[in-house]
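Sample entry follows:

_____
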Amino acid sequence: MSLPAAFDYHPAKSVDEAIALLQQYGDDAKLLAGGHSLLPTMKLRLAQPAHLVDIGKIGGLSYIREENGAVAVGAMTTYTTIEQSDILSRHFALLPEGTSVIGDPQVRNRGTIGGSIAHSDPAADMPGIVQALKADILVQGPNGVRTIKADDFFKGLFETALQPDEIITEIRFAIPPARTGSTYMKLENKASHYAVAGCAAVVTLDGDGTCSSVSVVITGASEKATRANAVEAALVGKKLDEATVAAAAAHAADGLALLGDIHGSREYRAQMSAVMARRAILRAAERV
């Protein structure tokens, strides 16, 4: 069994204390939330932080509440809580549906939404889901709280806009307009359940069935969850019949920094991105 390198453990009692610890230890520190992203990389010694700052014991970071035309989700809210939320199911089928296909029950019981997006694993599901829903990500640091748009948050392979001394505290999702449908679909690695290629789609239709807005994000295929701008542009103002959606989805891999590995070549991931996009867009439209 692989074991992590030696580290010091710091259980923070408040967000302010966690931020102070991050400032104190700098690049030698890592936040520990649910642990299902960080600990495997530590066991393989791909990450070797000298200090772990555990934010799991901080109260008040796990909640789901509807307020002011949005739903606020605390950063330490687990996947299982999201999956079982009536509020989220009522407004965003995409969120509970997406969390239901993450890992296994043990992962969903411990893994958190904030931990997943902070880690920004290209094969993870939550970064693409959050981006498709155009969420606001609230982060707190020594200079207070700031808001980062999901489209601006994911910068690259395991890289985000989060500063080393900042902590994600909340993710806010604007309640969509009427006649909106959403879904998440992926071709998954059967062992890990990570996405080889996936698609989160949100579709809003006018009364006559014309697409008034659409949000399409590809997961798993490239270095980060990426908005499929060409697909979105090809759908707005159109009736979403199968031919139109298929033609638009063919551009799903446009501009992606595609990955290739033992689970799929770049060419395979490009093709599967198009397949997942077509299926997800059609399903989201059916749910309107």
Notes: The longest helix spans residues 266-286. DSSP finds twelve helices and 14 strands in the chain. The mean pLDDT is 95. The chain has three domains: 8-53, 64-174, 180-286.
